[in-house]
Write the structure tokens for this entry.
Amino acid sequence: QLQASGGGLVQAGDSLRLSCAVSGITLSTYDMGWFRQVPGEGQSFIARITWTTGGTNYADSVKGRFTISRDNADNTLYLQMNRLKTDDTGVYFCAAKKRYRSDYNYWGQGTEVTVSS
């Protein structure tokens, strides 16, 4: 199970940290990611991390502002979001997949982030 939290209402320029508590998955063979969904639009990729190596990838729109990380001891995934923009508004989902898969097959319930101008 994946349980996301940490969303809220903030102003542009503020920071927010999202968390995703993971249980029931042996993460050593998994990638984990964050995605954002905006009403009327599809889901968009935000960031990815390979649990064992810590290797990361980011969407161009968040590079330099967002940082994905994980805590091996607590099995928790994080997304540190700095210098937030109104375009960052949406529901953020954490997800997990086996490294050999192309699609994410475990999803959390989403946490809403609203950035006001």
Notes: The CA atoms of residues 93 and 110 lie 4 Å apart.
